[in-house]
């Protein structure tokens, strides 16, 4: 307990300005050197908004319907199509007139 009291016996009291500082023969403290870490700097990522994370929010979700090129129906593609092929429309002819 005596060591504890001896350690905290002195009290650091705030001083109004530098002119009231007591001069000591000790060296002045120096700030630590700044070292750049190696590698590419990290990006500052935006924190996600808690409103966007709610389960009913479909802000970024897009609805995409697949349409078959063979029969023209939706919900499947031509690779797995089992239906008959649709009739192709006749080619359009331009008339000059």
TrEMBL record:
Annotated region described as Disordered, given as residue ranges: 23-58, 75-97
Ranges of biased composition (kind: Basic residues): 37-47
Protein name: CCHC-type domain-containing protein
